[in-house]
Amino acid sequence: MDVVDSSSWRALVHFVDEWREISNLTLDHLEPWQIVFYTLSVVFFIQWARKITKYEENLSFMWLLNDILIYLPGMQKKIEGFKEASRKEIEEKLLRFDRKKEFYRFLPDRGLSTEEIVGEAAEYKIMGDALFSRGLLSGASLSDNDENYQRMAQKIFDMYNSVNAIYPDVFPGCRKMEAEGCFFHFHKKPIICLVIRMLAQLYHGGSKSCGSITISGTESILLACIAYRNRAFKLGLRKPEIVIPKNAHIGFAKAAKLLDIRVVRVPLSKNFEVNVSAMKRAISRETCMLVASMPSYVYGTMDNIDKISQLGIRYGVPVHVDACLGGFLMPFMEHCDFPVSEFDFRLSGVTSISVDLDKYAYCPTGSSAILYRDEEFFHFQCYTEPRWAGGVYVSPTLSGNRPGSMIALTWATLLFNGRLGYIEKTHRIIDAARLLREKIQDQIDDIEILGEPALSIITFTSRNLKIPIHIVGDEMNEL
């Protein structure tokens, strides 16, 4: 055995000596500084190439070829022809319910009467009523048509239409709606709540949980990215990266573009959930946030938030759960006898959650929230400027002035429905989604459900190349 080991060692030494001699002969004409320079250049090139292939805005041969082709002689004319045809098609589609096709192009010299304005607004509303009455909308508008709710919402809007939430000392009632003051009964124990506190309780936040009401899911996502980027800067990271699934909400890419954050996109598994092993490999020293979808905006599938939470704990990286579309149903699922795995602040690695309230909470359009496990993360979200000539300026969200009517209507809507109301709605929504899924699987041979939809989003494609799925979607709108 020793003889074999000795022979192998001599062979290895001989091989290394041969390569050393070959290298010396090859580089004999170079000075030492040149060898060092070329070596470092190769190392830096390899590092650069790894980063280029890692980030979403990498060099793509197809994109480069496309940029070259569009400037070839004659191509610009063809492209302009396609653009004009598309413009006419879009214009025709958008104006199909507008009989008059007349527009106000200038501000009128004299103000119109209230009767004229209300009458014309009613005509505009009728344009969209056709789609509602024919049942051809999917996800564009989620509203509660209950007459009692509509009357209450009108009264709340009239009371708070002129309220500006940026001045909590001037409008303390609006501040209270956003920040405190109601009783919500869970597990037979009354808990003092606010809009944010109610939401934090739904997602099992502790006493230190906090957050903000925002004007959209995109703003909620953007604020989370701001918070974790600022935290990364404080920790000394100069080029923060966010690691997101390929099917994550487009708001993350938008936020990264605005904030100059690098995006690392993680591939999906065969079930259209994020590949957790690939996410682990994507984590680097510059990673400032991991993202999980609950559910995926595109496929309706649930990422394995438990395992992603464990990654966050292991590598010390905050984990953000995006629950913008459909995530409000999750807290009520277990009350409807639907099995639900842990997805929220019960997982110690989850540090923030974004949830839209204008979807399945039936709050006014433009109502969303960003929740944090701890005040530490929330502080990184806020903008403060003590040296401004106008005084100390503090803003927790992107907006300066914030409409108090939206906060008041959100508060009122949550109280109007209550826990039992949302449980009932969740039961009906999940039952309808599962019925749709079963009908598609059992009765349409050429259509395939993608992944394992967990909530209300059902994504399907065509198995038959002769049936383009996007044309199917267009035809569904014309039924």
Describe the overall structure.
- Its main location: endoplasmic reticulum.
- It is built from 16 helices and 13 strands.
- By secondary structure, it is of the alpha/beta class.
- It folds into four domains: about 1-30; about 30-80, no CATH class; about 155-420, 3-Layer(aba) Sandwich (Aspartate Aminotransferase, domain 2), CATH 3.40.640.10; about 420-475, Aspartate Aminotransferase, domain 1, CATH 3.90.1150.
- The strands form four sheets. A seven-stranded mixed β-sheet has the order 3-9-8-7-6-4-5, with helices on both faces. A two-stranded antiparallel ribbon has the order 1-2. The protein has a two-stranded antiparallel ribbon with strand order 10-11.
- Helix 6 (about 145-160) runs antiparallel to helix 15 (about 405-445) and helix 9 (about 215-235) packs across helix 10.
What are the salient characteristics of this protein?
single chain, 479 residues, alpha/beta, Aspartate Aminotransferase, domain 2, 7-stranded mixed β-sheet, 16 helices, 13 strands
